[in-house]
Amino acid sequence: MLIDSHCHLNYKGIVERQKDVLDAARERGVRGFLNISTRQSEWSDIVATAEREEDVWASVGIHPHEADRHQDLGTEALLQATRHQKVIAIGETGLDYYYEHSDREVQKALFRVHIDVSRQTSLPLIIHTRNAEKDTLNILRDEMGKGAFPALIHCFTASQEFGEAVLELGLSISLSGIVTFKNAKDLQETAKIIPEDRILVETDSPFLAPVPHRGKTCEPAFVADTLQFVADLRGVSADELSETTGRNFAALFSKARV
């Protein structure tokens, strides 16, 4: 079962033609979509899309770029938002030191708030990390020591060493269209060694369109192209990898009915 495990259906470039975009993906065999939020003001629209579309689910969370604008967001606000039946994940959250849009200490504190809610609800944590491997791993190890929580690294682009470390902690890894890029040789090698029960695929629409769609607005339908590329890397059929990643999605996001 092919699932786009991370897309932004309410972002510019997608939301204006959301129904057509979803129908196009369904025609290519996509059977589910996890619609990701990045700021609190989006939550109601993200959930409304999930209410309207049976095969769409929602996450609630704050992207690290938005951390400075949500310094006062407490555990209770997140917990309240998770009570909707179509909310199946927390995030995306994490650390981004590439753009430095928010103070690093604020990012760290908000990351821990999300982890606490994930632990309390057992909803998986969707983690964004860029140029922040050391701090991300330190926080994950520290928080896992307080009690386990389900999580995955979305749009994985980090080092193989980091990948091995988060896999050891029990996390899953999701691959985006970046893995298809010509300059992504290291990532392609990492994609080959992700355990069968920990691998997912995504688009991160409307960003990061995979080959052969580079330069276009990325759509959930393109997850089929990423899946085919990864299947070829791993020496399996696309149908086999589709079943594997779909099964992994259903196991990780157990609140979803797939």
UniProtKB/TrEMBL annotation:
The keyword tRNA processing does not apply. Pfam families: TatD_DNase. GO terms for cellular component: cytosol. Gene3D superfamilies: Metal-dependent hydrolases. A divalent metal cation 1 binds at residues 6, 8, 92, 204. PROSITE patterns: TATD_1 (PS01137), TATD_3 (PS01091). GO terms for molecular function: DNA nuclease activity; hydrolase activity, acting on ester bonds; metal ion binding. Keywords: Hydrolase, Metal-binding. A divalent metal cation 2 binds at residues 128, 154. InterPro entries: DNase_TatD-rel_CS (IPR018228), Metal_Hydrolase (IPR032466), TatD-like (IPR001130), TatD/YcfH-like (IPR015991). It comes from the Bacteria. NCBIfam families: YchF/TatD family DNA exonuclease. Belongs to the metallo-dependent hydrolases superfamily. TatD-type hydrolase family. This is LuxR family transcriptional regulator. It comes from Croceicoccus pelagius.
